[in-house]
Amino acid sequence: MNQEHFSYLLLFLVMLAGAAPGVAQTTTTRASTLRMDLYRPKMPDGQRDIEQGSDLHYGRLGRREGLWLVCDRNGGPCANQVIFISKSTLAAARPGEMMVATESIPLAAPTEGWAAFTQRHGGGGDAMAELRRQFENGPRGEGPLLDLEAITIGRSATAPQDNRLFLTTEQPNSFVLECVMTESGASARAVLTACYAYDEKEGTRGDDSNDGLEGIAWSGRPGEFFLVEEGTRAHDPSWTLLFFQRPRLMRCTLRDDRVIIDEAWSNAATQSLWALQTGKTHTLNSAARLDERTVLVADRNGGWLYVADVPSQTVRPWLNLYDKASLDLRTRLAEFPAPRRMPYVSIEGITQDPAGHLWLIDDPAMPEAFRASCLIRMVHPPARPAPPTAQ
Ligand SMILES: [Ca+2]
Ligand SMILES: [Ca+2]
């Protein structure tokens, strides 16, 4: 989503009222075992903040195991690359302090060249030309950057079906990008090998074309992924820039350059999700696979984490981000990484590590005075709702 276009008015409309007390503990323990550790993520140089973090994924790819992270188009020097934080760095980090990323992995153009790649992907068109332009701008280039909004590790439907990175970019056109990691000495690159177009249906995107694909999770089967679209309808008829209502949760196959939606599963899961809306807005901004049958999705605007039960095509609420008795992010992050003007936290990434802890990242929106993301580790999250009884 485009942080540039948030306004005070919108924020007041979309977020629950109530000022956060001026308390910020880096670690807080309740009576339960839940613990929230907060970190200040830095780029590998140890100096620059990681800004506008838009998604996280915990996983292993080759010799690397840890957190994989992307930033959106407003991430400046953090954009147009994949940022990796190793498992050992995560283990050594101290709550409340900096966490310095292990590596920044640049995106690299298709090895066959853009002309052949474009030809292979349907012959091009304006959308492919814009993708190439953003891709080639690089993090320090002029002009628009890739609006990376999601990352996961998964396997393609086509040979050789090795583990690869899958990213989404959404503005102005939503694509899933498939990249293979290549090594040269100590450095790595994420080389673009395929892209899959996601066509938002007629009338389902706002004027900024910035409410498209925001989350991705691999299903465990080659080529099959879960994707989320942020919104498909305006929450307020007078606000047509961004659609913050009627998000979509979809199961899809990536094949033949396109996102092919499993309409039956996706419609059922999405209807179940819509029934859970409690406030004026409802969005999906991240997705993560928790186990064989469970997908976790985050509703940034509504402030909820939901769990989708894949076999029953149902979605249930799990954790409210602002519940004072548990996560209470407004209070915990009121001064972290700096004083927040608005009483909300813009969670855009979530993932689970092998110990069962959840990691979250925020994408601070205007009018905050900072763009630095906060990395959150939720140790011993509360139990999830049980899936519906098998039919
Ligand atoms: Ca965006
Ligand atoms: Ca949309």
Question: How is the secondary structure organized here?
Answer:
Elements lengths: L7 H7 L12 E3 L5 E8 L10 E9 L2 E8 L9 E6 H6 L5 E3 L2 E6 L5 H7 L5 H12 L10 E8 L7 E7 L4 E11 L2 E12 L14 E6 L5 E6 L18 E8 L2 E4 L1 H12 L11 E6 L2 E6 L4 E6 L4 E7 L8 H4 L14 E6 L5 E5 L12 E5 L12
Parallel strand pairs: 2-6, 7-11
Antiparallel strand pairs: 1-2, 2-22, 3-4, 4-5, 5-7, 8-9, 9-10, 10-11, 12-13, 13-14, 14-15, 16-17, 17-18, 18-19, 20-21, 21-22
The structure holds calcium ion (2 copies).
Plain-language structure description:
With 391 residues, this protein is mainly beta. The protein has one domain. The protein is built from six helices and 22 strands. An eight-stranded mixed beta sheet has the order 3-4-5-7-11-10-9-8. The chain is globular, with a radius of gyration of 19 Å. The relative contact order is 0.18. Bound molecules: calcium ion (CA) (2 copies). One calcium ion binds next to loops.
Explain briefly what this protein structure is.
With 391 residues, the protein is mainly β. It has helices at residues 8-14, 87-92, 114-120, 126-137, 263-274, 329-332, and strands at residues 27-29, 35-42, 53-61, 64-71, 81-86, 98-100, 103-108, 148-155, 163-169, 174-184, 187-198, 213-218, 224-229, 248-255, 258-261, 286-291, 294-299, 304-309, 314-320, 347-352, 358-362, 375-379.
Observed structural traits:
391 residues; mainly beta; eight-stranded mixed β-sheet; six-stranded mixed β-sheet; disordered N terminus; binds calcium ion
